[in-house]
Amino acid sequence: MLPPDPILLADLELQARQLDSALARLVAARATLGSTSASLWRGTARAGFDAAIDGLIRTIEAGIAAITSARDHTLIAVRVVSARG
Asked: What is this structure's pTM?
């Protein structure tokens, strides 16, 4: 079996931390869009506003899912590289 590669391990750990940071920022952004009930928009402007917010929320949630997956796969790679040797 190959010995652990310290440079690769350090790079993967850095990537995992950066993904965690990006994930935290997206989750915080998503939380700010939680309630739009206080909006001053009315009528068709309100419908347009709500549709735009819904689209933004879906985009952020897709980003959260993608970054979560990338982080999880990075952590698996960290475990694999750490287990070498």
From this structure: 0.84
